[in-house]
Amino acid sequence: MEAIKTMSLHRQPFPQAARILRGSLTTCYARAAGHQEVLYNHQVTHIYQNGASWEVCRKGTATEQFDAVVLTVAIPQILQLQGDVGSLLEEIPRQQLGAVSYSSRYALGHFYKAQAHFDVPWAAKYVSNNPCIPFIDDQKRNLEFPECGPSMVVHISVPFGVKHLEEAKEQVEPIILVKLNKLLPGLPQPDSIKCKKWRYSQRSKKMVLKEIPTESVARPLGRNEVIGLLFRLTIFGAVTYFTIKWMVDAIDPTRKQKMEAQKQAEKLMKQIGVQNVKLSEYEMSIAAHLVDPLTMQITWSDIAGLDEVITELKDTVILPIQKRHLFEGSRLLQPPKGVLLYGPPGCGKTLIAKATAKEAGFRFINLQPSTLTDKWYGESQKLAAAVFSLAIKLQPSIIFIDEIDSFLRSRSSSDHEATAMMKAQFMSLWDGLETDYNCQVIIMGATNRPQDLDSAILRRMPTRFHINQPNVRQREEILKLILDNENVEPTVDFVEIAKETDGFSGSDLRELCRDAALLCVRDFVHNTHANDSLEEDCIRSIQQQDMQRAIQKMRKSKSAGGQSVLMHAAMD
Hints:
- By secondary structure, this protein is an alpha/beta fold.
- It has four domains: 7-98, 3-Layer(bba) Sandwich (FAD/NAD(P)-binding domain); 102-203, Polyamine Oxidase, Chain A, domain 2 (Alpha-Beta Complex); 255-466, Rossmann fold, CATH 3.40.50; 472-571, Helicase, Ruva Protein, domain 3 (Orthogonal Bundle), CATH 1.10.8.60.
- Helix content is 40%, strand content 16%.
- The chain has helices spanning 24-32, 75-80, 94-98, 158-163, 169-183, 214-217, 223-251, 255-271, 281-287, 307-322, 349-360, 379-393, 417-430, 455-459, 472-482, 494-500, 506-530, 544-571; strands at residues 7-10, 19-22, 44-50, 53-58, 64-66, 82-83, 102-111, 124-126, 135-139, 151-155, 192-203, 290-291, 338-342, 363-367, 397-402, 441-447, 463-466.
- The strands form four sheets. A six-stranded mixed beta sheet has the order 12-14-15-16-13-17.
- The radius of gyration is 51 Å and the shape is rod-shaped.
- It starts with 6 loop residues before the first strand and ends with a helix.
């Protein structure tokens, strides 16, 4: 680091103050104010702030304290100072100050004796097209002071100063003399020659990086500079992070659905009593389809005519999990990995699945095929993996897939690549090399088209229950269960109705009873409009003839539906 030249330290009698000044103007002001102690050529290296005072370190001397410090030096010299001076420049962009480039300025003075004389017809001369000397000043000092001889000061150009930026004045002086003798060859020999150099005198027009001293680049940062830099970097990093996060969320078309799914999942997890379980983003999407067993209203008593199926289901599926300690030593008596309920529509397959989750107390995941489909490549496989990872975290659990044939139908070469990969991922996690036999996760599926299922899926569902259309006895039990809490005439013959409803499913029987009850409501409405003076305000009981009329209506609707099915089959 080059010494800070012509630096003057002015001490008392400033009231409890000492100032560092530079230049003729400040020196004259200090002397005029009565300050006699002026020190030149002191290199100040550090300036620290210590409370209300300042500590100044000069090269080769001890640290001194001052009440005030005035800097009248060039910007590069200020930037080279170490200590707390940098904190005073925070409001001014340091990059702009550091980008200012300065060149050196040289001046060569020729001093002659009092008797010397040379004929120069100008007092000052601008020289054009000279790369070194642009201006010459002829100072005729002998006109004001006869004891002094004339003198001449030669000023050099900015490009010359840039070229000889760091050279000593002793090296540059001969070069200037050669240029001057070529320009004015008839000059007499001077009595003395003095060369003066100002390192930071003129701003160069362009910034030259290699002109910046390496000491100023490598200088250590002050404490305030480090704190300010860390603060700015923290603010910049936080703004950048939240900006990128906002942009990613803005371009995600499923962001709203994901947020709603997350809220729904958190609500359901609290309802089923699951705490301290960390879920991934994909598991949250699946958890939104959880069903709280306590909120289910379907029990075994709400299912009529399927006693054999219910008994086998209890013994085969529920008992090995509820009494697990009885079957720990046997692999044959472990609960099945998959249960398939198949049969015609409307016969109670979904009711059995709900009652199983209710009575067994399992966590119930109602999986829909649309949940596993995503437009981004590879996301479907991640969602399929999240189904099993969530079920394992919540075990014992049941993954119920209604209409499983639409999701896991037979594979073919015409399947889409994403669909084929999703099925392969699902089956691998279901019962593959990494499957844990102690896992208490059961996949239960319901379908009315078992022939469309893939053979590998059927292999993974060894426990199958055929829920067929109810026979006469089962239909009688279903009718009694549906009309148990209704107002029914004692004369209604359930056996006769069961015989006349051959081919009706459980869903058809429920609709049949609903139509019979609506006939009673219609009669009440018509009688009310016909006779406004009726004092009784009640609906009559369901009679045998209401059931007969409902059967006739249901047969017509079933025959119409059957004809349409045949028509579509013929068209196909």
